[in-house]
């Protein structure tokens, strides 16, 4: 496999021929689940009502899935997955549903707990997660590249109770925070955010943000570390806020390469990783589609100290070849019950497994 990993690690194919798989979750009994929003992909042309959820057992622990069993079919753009209190939660474009988890990949009857989420245009992925305090969070991207939203639930992270009640906007100004996780040290949300297109090869940056209650992270008026998007905004800050545009918005924690399309991220807690990796963050760069020279198409390691990021380096590369060929597009990362790292790829239709070379 022409992918480059650091010394001490190995990468292999855990499952293939899955269709364009996106986000993953690990069940209470240690099975890996993965979403496939549609056979044509999240943004492909064609029917979007054939989404599936796969369970991928590895009963003999050989590092390869025994099968990819579709436990749910006929869904409309299922994306985010989460297990909480013995339910499997599935975030679709306009709904969140949950199923009692019986065990061994078996699910009970479907219950729709959230309906009427805005959809129909723009970013279609919905990502879901649960905080250490037991609140449910759902991320919705914007309806457009750059615009003023008419629905406050777009370009936002929403907070709910686990039964779908109590919904509110937790934070906004987040153009497309596809990936978010909870910092195991602080419990705070760390999220990726994808900047707008059609501005410049190197602007605006993608971002890592610490997302806090009530925060506005700038989009569509501001990006990065409180930089005013004067290409879009000709009125708001120019007319109302001089001379400090964007000072009322939350700055990014870290600016990433523009158009690299940072999606899933994960704090490293696995004992398969050496001590020097613990507490750092891995980020999947899905790769650019709006740039003269392609960027991304890799998994990066962010060196973390407290609420600061000290540096960034490649952890896995090789999906983007020297001749411009793109072998795959990493989406999500998760540690399995065996403490190996699993990475989904919605171009190669693969889930990879990364483990310590000595195990």
Automatic annotation (TrEMBL):
Q: Which residues form the Pyrroloquinoline quinone-dependent pyranose dehydrogenase beta-propeller domain?
A: 4-354
Pfam families (UniProt xref)? TrAA12 (PF22807)
Q: InterPro entries from the entry?
A: 6-blade_b-propeller_TolB-like, Beta-prop_PDH, Quinoprot_gluc/sorb_DH_b-prop
What protein is this chain from?
Pyrroloquinoline quinone-dependent pyranose dehydrogenase beta-propeller domain-containing protein
Species: Candidatus Terrybacteria bacterium RIFCSPHIGHO2_01_FULL_43_35
């Amino acid at each position: 496999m022409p992918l480059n990993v650091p010394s001490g690690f190995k990468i292999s194919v855990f499952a293939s021929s899955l269709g364009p798989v996106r986000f993953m979750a690990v069940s209470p009994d240690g099975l890996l689940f993965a979403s496939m929003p549609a056979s044509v992909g999240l943004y492909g042309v064609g029917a979007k009502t054939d989404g599936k959820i796969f369970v991928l057992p590895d009963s003999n622990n050989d590092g390869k899935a025994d099968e990819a069993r579709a436990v749910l079919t006929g869904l409309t753009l299922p994306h985010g997955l989460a297990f909480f209190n013995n339910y499997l939660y599935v975030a679709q474009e306009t709904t969140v549903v949950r199923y009692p988890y019986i065990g061994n990949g078996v699910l009970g009857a479907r219950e729709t707990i959230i309906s009427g989420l805005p959809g129909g245009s723009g970013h279609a992925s919905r990502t879901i997660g649960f905080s250490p305090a037991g609140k449910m969070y759902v991320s919705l991207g914007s309806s457009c590249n750059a615009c003023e939203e008419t629905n406050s639930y777009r370009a936002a992270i929403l907070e709910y109770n686990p039964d779908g009640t109590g919904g509110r906007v937790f934070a906004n100004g987040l153009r497309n925070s596809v990936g978010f996780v909870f910092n195991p040290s602080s419990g705070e949300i760390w999220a990726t955010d994808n900047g707008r297109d059609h501005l410049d090869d190197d602007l605006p940056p993608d971002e890592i943000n610490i997302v806090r209650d009530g925060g506005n992270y700038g989009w569509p008026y501001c990006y990065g570390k409180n930089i005013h998007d004067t290409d879009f905004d000709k009125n708001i800050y120019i007319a109302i806020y001089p001379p400090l545009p964007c000072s009322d918005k939350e700055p990014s924690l870290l600016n990433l390469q523009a158009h690299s399309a940072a999606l899933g991220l994960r704090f490293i807690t696995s004992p398969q990783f050496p001590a020097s990796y613990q507490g750092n963050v891995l980020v999947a760069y899905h790769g650019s589609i709006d740039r003269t020279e392609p960027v991304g198409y890799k998994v990066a390691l962010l060196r973390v100290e407290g609420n600061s990021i000290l540096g960034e380096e490649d952890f896995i590369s090789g999906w983007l070849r020297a001749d411009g060929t793109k072998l795959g597009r990493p989406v999500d990362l998760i540690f399995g019950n065996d403490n190996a790292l699993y990475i989904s790829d919605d171009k190669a239709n693969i889930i990879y497994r990364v483990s310590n070379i000595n195990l």
